[in-house]
């Protein structure tokens, strides 16, 4: 059995905690951002039994815990679910426990009744067959002649083993949280980068949007002058009204204002930490809605290009958000 794989933490508790400084004051620390993917293994054992916990978590809309426990250890299922729920907010968790009794502690029992039956059959066949007598090792190799017998553990040994197995589960969860926290830090850094890109593209779009209504108005004015020069059937007042309506529909400043508000909200979530995956996922939907509207309103090639780049950056952000708890 290999050495125990201890986690970096002291237990499966959430990352948010109070820190007491040298002056005795307690300072609140923000919760860390965790990934929903992780793996941990913890091995343990005593004089007669060895065991190993394995915990694997992947992405999930909510927390779903499934355990696979050997016979005799089914009573640990409520403990496993409660412990995982205390450590993780979201994700699909698979918890496996493997238990193996040491061979050195295994005793063997001779099935004398079955052996007598085999010897009786051999005695009846000796007169009919010209064969060498059976060897002892051959007889003992027959199935059922030797049966393994598990030694009975005392109640104290069972209680002590259960406590050790439960302690190793908590250690494995601490190791799982450490991995999810480390991956979460990388996701947090990438998410900040995507949000910076979104903000930069919003600034570029604002530069184009500032000239878009006037540019559209100028193009429409030229078309209106051409129509009026060819026919007097169209009212200039009516054309002015249509011009104002089209210019208003092409104005994307409201969309850009909402995009900037979403950028601020996303940064506030990332700064606050904790279980922010659902809220960030919702913000990505709002980001995408505004970007789609911006592209549909665009009457400028450059603004359309920026809108497409904006949608690409939002999709990259969404892909990272899908992994955040």
Q: What is the strand and helix layout of this fold?
A:
Elements: E1 18-20, E2 26-28, E3 38-45, E4 49-58, E5 63-68, H1 77-87, E6 91-101, E7 107-110, H2 112-126, H3 136-141, E8 146-149, H4 155-230, H5 236-249, H6 253-272, H7 277-297, H8 301-321
Parallel strand pairs: 5-6
Antiparallel strand pairs: 1-2, 3-4, 4-6, 7-8
Keyword list:
325 residues, alpha+beta, Ribosomal Protein S5, domain 2, 3 domains, 4-stranded mixed β-sheet, two-stranded antiparallel sheet, 8 helices, elongated
Give an overview of the whole structure.
There is one protein chain. With about 325 residues, the chain is an alpha+beta fold. It has three domains: about 20-100 and about 160-180, 2-Layer Sandwich (Ribosomal Protein S5, domain 2); about 105-145, no CATH class; about 185-320, Butyryl-CoA Dehydrogenase, subunit A, domain 3, CATH 1.20.140. About 55% of the residues lie in helices and about 15% in strands. It is built from eight helices and eight strands. It has helices at about 75-85, 110-125, 135-140, 155-230, 235-250, 255-270, 275-295, 300-320, and strands at about 20, 25-30, 40-45, 50-60, 65-70, 90-100, 105-110, 145-150. Strand 1 and strand 2 (about 25-30) form a beta hairpin.
């Amino acid at each position: 059995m290999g050495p125990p794989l201890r986690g970096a933490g002291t237990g499966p508790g959430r990352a948010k905690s109070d820190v007491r400084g040298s002056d005795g004051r307690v300072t609140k620390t923000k919760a860390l951002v965790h990934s929903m993917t992780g793996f941990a293994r913890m091995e343990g054992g005593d004089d007669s039994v060895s065991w190993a916990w394995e915990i694997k978590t992947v992405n999930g809309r909510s927390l779903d815990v499934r355990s696979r426990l050997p016979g005799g250890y089914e009573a640990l299922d409520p403990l496993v679910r409660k412990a995982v729920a205390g450590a993780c907010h979201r994700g699909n968790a698979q918890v496996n426990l493997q238990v193996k009794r040491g061979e050195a502690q295994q005793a063997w029992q001779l099935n004398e009744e079955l052996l007598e039956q085999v010897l009786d059959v051999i005695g009846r066949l000796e007169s009919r067959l010209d064969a060498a007598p059976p060897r002892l090792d051959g007889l003992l190799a027959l199935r059922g002649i030797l049966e393994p017998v598990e030694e009975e553990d005392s109640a104290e040994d069972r209680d002590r083993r259960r406590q050790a197995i439960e302690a190793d589960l908590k250690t494995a969860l601490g190791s799982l949280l450490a991995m999810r926290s480390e991956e979460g830090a990388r996701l947090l850094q990438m998410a900040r980068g995507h949000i910076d890109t979104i903000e930069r593209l919003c600034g570029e779009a604002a530069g184009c949007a500032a000239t878009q209504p006037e540019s559209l108005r100028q193009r429409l004015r030229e078309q209106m002058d051409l129509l009026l020069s060819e026919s007097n059937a169209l009212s200039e007042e009516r054309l002015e009204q249509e011009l104002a309506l089209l210019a208003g529909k092409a104005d994307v400043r409201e969309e850009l204002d909402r995009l900037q508000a979403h950028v601020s909200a996303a940064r506030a979530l990332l700064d606050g930490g904790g279980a922010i995956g659902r809220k960030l996922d919702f913000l990505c939907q709002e980001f995408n809605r505004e970007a789609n509207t911006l592209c549909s309103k665009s009457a400028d090639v450059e603004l359309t290009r920026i809108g497409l780049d904006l949608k690409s950056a939002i999709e990259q952000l969404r892909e990272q958000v899908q992994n955040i708890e």
